[in-house]
Structures are given as C-alpha cells and as structure tokens.
C-alpha cells in the first residue's frame, strides 16, 4: 500500500517513519528545504529512533512539494498544524484539503491527525467533496485519528498507544483502523469524528490542569517551607488520586499542543454558549508559572550572571515552540545571561531568544545556574560534576546537593 503524509513536521515525520516499516510513504510539504532533507533520508527534527527508521526504511520513503503524490496513494494522513496565535483557525488545513481534493482518486482514505475544533472533520470533508466531485463515505473515506504522542517519545507512543478513530461512517473508521491493525498497533473506534476531536481536546485540557495543580502545589510548598516532592508522593498514595505520580511541577507549560488546545476547546464551547471557568484557572496558573520561577531566581542573585541550561519546552527534544524559558529570559533581561541547550540549533536559539548560544562550560561559569529543561544530557555525571560547586536553581528536579534550590522545596 502507498501512503501520503501531508505536513512533515513534529507530527508527520515520526508518523511516516513508523508507517514506512510496512507501507510506501511519501511526505508532502510546502517547505522545499525540508523536502530536500527528507528526500536525502535525513529527518529535520531531533527525536530518538527517528534517524534509524529513516535509514532502515529509506527504500520506502520519499518526499515532494507536489500534491499530485496524493493520486497514487491508498491513504492520506493530514498532519498540518493550526496557527499558534489563533489555534482554532483551520485555514491551513482547509487549503490542504482543497489540494487533496483536486488530486484525489476514488476509494482513497483520508485520515486527519491534526488537533482541531469539534466539527472540523465534517467541514474538511465538504471541501474535499467540492474539489474532487466524490461523495464522502462512498467515493472516498474519511476519519479522525488525533495524534497523542509525546515529543522525545514519539516513536514508542505511535507504536504502543491505542489509536482513537472516529469515521464519517463505519467503513471509514474500519479502513482507518486497519492501517494500524495490520502493524499490530491497537485501535479503538468511537462513535464519530466529533467524539474523537473532543477526546483529544479534553485529554490535553486535563493534562494541562494536572500540571497546573502541581505548579500551584509547588508555590504553596515554597511558601510553607515544605518539600513538594514529599507532599505529592504522600498525596498520591491515596488510591483515589493518581495525577501526582505522573506530573511534577516545572517552569510552565510549553510546546505546541498543551499551550493551545485548551484555547481551542474554550472557543468551541463559547460557540455553544458555554464557558469553562476551569480552563481559565488552569491557563492563569500555567501562564504565570515562568514569572514565578523568574522571581525565585531573582531572590537568589542580585545582578551578576545567570547560566540557563535547557531551553526547549521539555527534555530530550529540540523544539523551542512555546517554551516557558522564553518568558523567563525576558523577565531576567536585566541580568547577563548565558544560555545552553544540547539539542537546540544554535542559530535557531539566537533567532528565537535574541541571545547567542554558548558552550556548556561558559554557561556553567555564572553566578547562578537555572535548570530549564530536563535533558538526560544534564544528568550525565560529568555535567553534574561541573555543577557541584555552583549555586543552582533546579526548576526540573534533576539535581541533588546542598548547592541546589529546587522548585517547590521551601525557601
């Protein structure tokens, strides 16, 4: 079977690489530089295991900027994102749907993987019907299978997480499930595309809410002189409460999904005359967390230099999108900052933060060190040895020692 991945970013690249173990995969993307790299079987994002899959399956991977690749595909997976500043705006998806419709062959399955407002899949189906002249559910098939992978664990999540699939009709859902079933990946069919759309949005809203609870708990423990990690462990020992074992406090919520999906859900609810106060509270806590961390850092150092280790929104990724570290840096602009990240591209760091990326030893040679991302690199004994005699504010709970002040552990 031939498959087409439309949108070759952080969602599309690992998805296509995994599927290429069984299917012939063609990436379609408007970015010609990205397409050139993928055509050379070189992924453009840092994701454990991704490069190995590209090398292993290179005979079944190709890339192009031309939507005509859709014509020879048995299935098309739509992985185009929505604008970060207006996440409910689906114009890029609609443009892609038009291109797909103009190149669609009868009997093709279209699977939307992007996170979208409830009702989007049916609207996209109407666009494809108009452009192709085919009827959804008969001339072509369509389902929603929202991506639920975690960056830095994308490959294992694609292989191991159960896939939720909601089709325009039963056959659409079954065809979508078969793509994964034939690879030994578990699937579950739900009642409709709308159900699948809402499940993804609600899941991420709950994830962000759990993180907000942990961040609020850290602030309270700081004020009360308690250890948030002891408290969360004991709170989590109650069998009715499970979130404390999964989530830990940090410098704020970041990344492409959790920072926008609550807004998508709130906009969807507002259009139905409902407003979620819970989303408002979650957003207020998580949006203010970077400023709280910056204020804690300022308590520890007046003037001088601050070295920031880890700039991405989470550990073991190169993704700077919506990283909470950007707001921390903006709040600390009166200090001299030396920033380092083992995975982020130095030129991208300079463009994104307006500060030059420096080497590890230069960053460590500061009056105070802030741990901003929990990269495994910083857990390396050699790196930790460099930090042994330095004052450290650990916002990620990866270090120990008398020289380390941890987020949520007293004042």
- The CATH superfamily of the largest domain turns out to be NAD(P)-binding Rossmann-like Domain
Highest-level CATH class of the largest domain: Alpha Beta
Q: Which structural class should the secondary elements be placed in?
A: alpha/beta
The tally of helices reads: 15
Uncertain regions: pLDDT < 50 for 5+ in a row?
none
Averaging pLDDT over every residue, what do you get?
95
**Main sheet, how many strands, which sense, barrel?**
8 strands, mixed
In the CATH hierarchy, what is the architecture of the largest domain at level 2?
3-Layer(aba) Sandwich
What does the radius of gyration come to? 23 Å
Shape: globular
CATH topology of the largest domain: Rossmann fold
Instruction: Tell how many strands the DSSP assignment holds.
Output: 13
Strand content: 5-15%
What string gives the helices and strands in order?
EHEHHEEHEHEHEHEHHHHEHEHHEHEE
The helix fraction, in percent, is 40-55%
End-to-end separation: 60 Å
- The neighbouring-strand order within the major sheet is 3-2-1-4-5-6-7-8
Describe this structure in words.
This protein is α/β, with parallel strands linked by helices and about 400 residues long. The protein folds into 2 domains: about 1-190, NAD(P)-binding Rossmann-like Domain (Rossmann fold), CATH 3.40.50.720; about 205-405, Rossmann fold, CATH 3.40.50. The chain has helices spanning about 10-20, 30-40, 50-55, 90-100, 120-130, 155-160, 170-180, 195-225, 230-235, 260-270, 275-300, 325-330, 345-355, 360-365, 380-385, and strands at about 1-5, 25-30, 60-65, 75-80, 110, 140-145, 165, 185-190, 305-310, 335-340, 370, 390-395, 405. The chain has an 8-stranded mixed beta sheet, with helices on both faces. Strands 10-9-11-12-13 form a 5-stranded parallel beta sheet. Helix 11 (about 275-300) packs across helix 12.
